[in-house]
């Protein structure tokens, strides 16, 4: 380590991180190798559901049905179409019965029901060209997936006089998992080379550019290992792999970007490499740690929701954020100590004409900040109005649940369900199932079924007492109906006219639950689960928002010592998300750009997604806010000049925040190329939020608002000042080091109180 000047002894943290840099890098390499092994096969352990609310009425009824009547919830559909003949023709009927017999003989399949054995009108298309065989594959998620992988190829395609397509929830989840794995691999192939190119453009030096990318790769591999470990004690959604991989790569690159940039600044002041690393860890390193805590705090709010779809992002997201920060604060300093001034090697800027290098770094952002501050009211009002306008479509949001339309239109599970939606009576697959407990009698079940069938929006009610429509019995009970009673428990199936996620079906759930029954009745099914999920979200959302706001206020106060800046940070962060939420509704709910982006609009947004997107995007916005505020605070502490400090902060971080946001947006857009609609919405929506925050809020709205608040920005009551003096975590200079000097900014306005 000849580059290390030992006349400048490092501090405790720096000494711990850089005392044995080669050993640190060797251990990092060992960690990466172990992460590759530990994270292998993680996708096979992730689950495709998690939107339901455990503990709700619908969840209780579903569990009871699974216990008493496992065959009541079919998850496999064979859609059988006659090749040129109707389903009632002798040759098609014979082939249909044979397919049903073969399926019933499969050891993994139970509860096979066929149109050709029951004659049920709900299993026959209205035009008579297609009919269904429905069945149940038992076991856990892994067993169901393995059975689908084996069964689907055996039945898919031509069988004599018929053509068969395979669908149902089991096929949907298997196809969803396979598609997400393929899309994630493609996204990484897209994101990594583009990210490297952007890093080269930001740093000029190829060596400096490779460092953040290397840290990002370590974070990706560590992410997979973290997810694999989390699956041993908690359910994790398959969607978590996409987003947490993106966060691992994006945040690791962001953090490394700030650390390397600050290290190079310190070298430019004449510091030796070890001293530069020490100063970098005291300043940018401390801010990276602080930023990671703010992102983790935002993600932790998802622990308040019972759905494992959201909780899995809290588990995995927090692990990934801390892993990214650890990689940037442990591995990177060791590499910088060994590289020293060679971090600037292979500087590609040398091939550019010298005149391009004469402009002072950040001068454009400084000029923009001064312009904004001269016209602060205009920029503040105009920016806020524009952001609110972009968010207006969210006022028309309709919440729904994920279904087969998450898949591409050509996916077999999507095709099957679309045929059922378009051609079969009622809404097969969207039934509302009512569990009846307390040893109900046949007479009680018949009277109850009659009342249910008389409700508007009900096609028919099927149960132990027979079939009912419009308040009267239309078919007597047969063997299939008698199988709906066991151990003093029975169940009824209500077939609605509308789609399962339609408001009409959701209202129907409430009407069913309001019908008097002489026994304990519990409703479940897609519509009932959606109603219960919305209730849980609306109940927990205020608490989650309060947690995020409280933690953000505390952390930003500890960073700045101001009682005003934390409030501004929360309000401005929330404003930065308006464009994302407006775009989500305008594009993904209403279907604008659906052809260009290649997805099927459903007229609704999955209920848990806005919560997830808010927590992630809010945390990322705070990420950039912390980096800007830390530099503003650093300069204000040094000079006491409020306006100059704002210009300094924007100048020092504007280009870097923009570059970091563009790189993170590239990663999220790569995730957004997924063929899964929800993943596409996550990736593109968060990319938009990140870019709006970096390019609009941080460069226009923050300087304008801080100009309007003036020196009052830094106000805090005396008790809070004392608290900050004792526990504050600002990015100041460490003891024994002169502050980093900033050249005067031309045309700087005189400081005043604002």
Describe the protein's topology:
Elements: H1 12-18, H2 21-38, H3 57-68, E1 76-82, H4 90-104, E2 109-114, H5 115-118, E3 130-137, H6 141-155, E4 157-159, E5 162-167, H7 169-203, H8 206-230, H9 239-268, H10 273-300, H11 308-339, H12 363-374, H13 376-391, E6 399-400, H14 412-423, E7 432-437, H15 442-453, E8 458-463, E9 466-469, E10 472-475, H16 479-482, E11 485-486, E12 489-496, H17 503-514, E13 520-525, H18 526-560, H19 565-576, H20 578-589, H21 594-597, E14 605-606, H22 609-639, H23 642-672, H24 677-709, H25 718-727
Helix pairs in contact: 1-10, 2-8, 2-11, 6-7, 7-8, 7-9, 7-23, 8-9, 8-11, 9-10, 9-11, 9-23, 10-11, 10-18, 10-22, 12-13, 12-23, 12-24, 13-20, 13-24, 17-18, 18-19, 18-22, 19-22, 19-24, 20-24, 22-23, 22-24, 23-24
Detailed description of the structure:
- The protein is α+β, with helices and mostly antiparallel strands and 754 residues long.
- The protein is 61% helix and 9% strand.
- It has 25 helices and 14 strands.
- Strands 7, 8, 9, 10, 11, 12 and 13 form a 7-stranded antiparallel beta sheet that branches. Strands 2-3-1-5-4 form a 5-stranded antiparallel beta sheet, sandwiched between helices. Strands 6-14 form a two-stranded parallel ribbon.
- The chain is elongated, with a radius of gyration of 30 Å.
- The two termini are 51 Å apart.
- The N terminus and C terminus are likely disordered.
């Amino acid at each position: 380590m000849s580059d290390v000047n030992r006349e400048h002894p490092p501090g405790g943290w720096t000494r711990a991180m850089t005392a044995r840099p080669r050993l640190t890098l060797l251990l990092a390499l060992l960690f990466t190798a172990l992460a590759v092994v530990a994270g292998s096969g993680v996708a096979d352990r992730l689950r495709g559901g998690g939107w339901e609310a455990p503990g709700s009425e619908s969840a209780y009824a579903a569990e009871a049905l699974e216990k008493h009547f496992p065959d009541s919830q079919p998850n496999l559909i064979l859609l059988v179409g006659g090749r040129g003949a109707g389903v009632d023709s002798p040759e098609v009927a014979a082939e249909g019965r044979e397919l049903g017999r073969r399926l019933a003989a499969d050891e993994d399949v139970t509860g096979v029901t066929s149109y050709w054995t029951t004659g049920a009108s709900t299993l026959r298309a209205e035009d008579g060209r297609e009919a269904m065989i429905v069945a149940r594959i038992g076991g856990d998620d892994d067993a169901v997936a393995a059975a689908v992988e084996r069964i689907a190829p055996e039945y898919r395609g031509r069988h004599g006089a018929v053509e068969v397509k395979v669908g149902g929830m089991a096929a949907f989840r298997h196809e969803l998992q396979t598609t997400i794995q393929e899309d994630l691999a493609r996204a990484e192939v897209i994101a990594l080379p583009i990210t490297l190119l952007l890093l080269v453009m930001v740093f000029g030096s190829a060596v400096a550019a490779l460092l953040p990318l290397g840290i990002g790769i370590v974070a990706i591999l560590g992410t997979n290992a973290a997810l694999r470990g989390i699956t041993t004690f908690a359910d994790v959604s398959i969607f978590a792999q996409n987003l947490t991989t993106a966060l691992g790569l994006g945040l690791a690159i962001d953090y490394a970007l700030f650390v390397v940039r600050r290290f190079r600044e310190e070298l430019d002041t004449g510091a030796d490499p070890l001293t530069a690393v020490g100063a970098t860890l005291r300043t940018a390193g401390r801010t990276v740690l602080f930023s990671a805590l703010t992102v983790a705090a935002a993600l932790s709010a998802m622990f308040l929701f019972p759905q494992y779809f959201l909780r899995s992002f809290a588990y995995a997201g927090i692990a990934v954020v801390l892993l990214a920060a650890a990689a940037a604060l442990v591995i990177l300093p060791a590499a910088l100590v060994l590289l020293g001034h060679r971090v600037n090697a292979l500087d590609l800027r040398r091939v550019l004409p010298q005149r391009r290098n004469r402009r002072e770094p950040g001068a454009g952002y400084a000029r923009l900040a001064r312009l904004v501050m001269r016209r602060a009211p205009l920029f503040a009002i105009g920016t806020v109005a524009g952001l609110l306008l972009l968010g207006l479509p969210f006022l028309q949001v309709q919440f729904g649940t994920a279904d087969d339309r998450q898949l591409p239109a050509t996916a077999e599970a999507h095709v099957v369900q679309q045929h059922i939606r378009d051609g079969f009576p009622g809404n097969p697959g969207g039934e509302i199932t009512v569990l009846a407990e307390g040893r109900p009698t046949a007479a009680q079940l018949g009277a109850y079924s009659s009342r249910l069938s008389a409700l508007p929006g009900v096609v028919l009610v099927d149960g132990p007492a027979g079939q009912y429509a419009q308040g009267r019995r239309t078919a007597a009970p047969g063997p299939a109906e008698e199988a709906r009673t066991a151990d003093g428990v029975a169940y009824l199936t209500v077939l609605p006219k509308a789609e399962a996620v339609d408001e009409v079906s959701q209202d129907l759930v409430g009407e069913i639950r309001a019908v008097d029954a002489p026994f304990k009745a519990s409703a479940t099914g897609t519509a009932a689960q959606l109603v219960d999920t919305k209730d849980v979200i609306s109940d927990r959302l205020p608490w989650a928002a309060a947690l995020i706001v409280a933690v953000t206020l505390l952390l930003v106060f500890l960073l700045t010592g101001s009682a005003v800046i934390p409030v501004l940070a929360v309000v401005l962060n929330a404003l930065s998300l308006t464009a994302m939420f407006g775009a989500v509704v305008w594009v993904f709910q209403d279907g604008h750009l659906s052809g260009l982006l290649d997805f099927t609009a459903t007229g609704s947004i999955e209920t848990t997604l806005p919560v997830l997107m808010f927590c992630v995007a809010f945390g990322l916005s705070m990420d950039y806010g912390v980096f800007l505020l830390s530099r503003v605070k650093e300069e204000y502490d040094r000079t006491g000049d409020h306006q100059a400090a704002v210009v300094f902060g924007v100048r020092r971080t504007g280009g870097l925040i923009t570059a970091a946001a563009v790189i993170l947006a590239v990663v999220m857009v790569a995730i957004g190329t997924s063929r899964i609609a929800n993943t596409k919405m996550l990736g593109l929506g968060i990319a938009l939020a990140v870019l709006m925050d970096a390019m609009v809020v941080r460069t226009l709205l923050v300087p304008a608002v801080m100009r309007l608040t003036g020196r009052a920005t830094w106000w805090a009551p005396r008790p809070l000042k004392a608290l900050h003096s004792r526990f504050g975590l600002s990015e100041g200079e460490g003891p024994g080091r002169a502050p980093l000097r900033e050249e005067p900014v031309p045309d700087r306005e005189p400081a005043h109180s604002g």
